[in-house]
Specification:
It contains 4 helices and 9 strands; from the N terminus they run H-E-H-E-H-E-E-E-H-E-E-E-E. The protein has helices at residues 2-15, 22-40, 53-62, 114-125, and strands spanning 17-20, 46-50, 70-77, 89-92, 102-110, 130-139, 153-158, 163-164, 180-182. Helix 2 (22-40) packs across helix 3 (53-62). The longest helix has 19 residues, at 22-40. The two termini are 24 Å apart.
Length: 186
Amino acid sequence: MQETLLEEVRRIQAEADCVASPAAVDAAFDRMAQDITRRLQNANPLIYTVMNGGLIVAGRLISKLDFPLELAYLHATRYGHALNGTFLDWRIRPAQNLAGRTVLIIDDVLDEGHTLDAICQSVRDAGAAEVLTAVLVHKVHERKAKPGMRADFTGLDAPDRFLYGCGMDYKGYWRNAAGIYAVKGR
């Protein structure tokens, strides 16, 4: 069984379309870091990484932010290893005192945005003074949780396809890909 999945994920990578090269991703991280620094360098922000997809994005982005910040993580998902889904599963909720804080939530992709929207609402409900979002990828389509929904900081716009790389996965694999790829035909 495991061999079959490994063969599948290797085939997916071999056939994939490159949506953003590693160089384009690096440039996107640089732009995001500059924008976030301008906005938050004096805000004493608490930064939450959304696991697991946000791990790669936060790791690459945080080291470019040259100001004091606190870092934590949370885990809420709609997908698991499935290709789609609607159920929001809170695995780890924010644990810090958020009262009066500026909070930046970092994730890999804004697709429909239901998960990110629910996370933001939970953080607001916990008393955060300001909640901002940062995603590496914004999928361009009209099925957002809220009309016109966008993150406060976005690295790249991408087509409405099944993407992986830079935190996004295909069946749990390829989060580590340095570029962003689309599954052929999807």
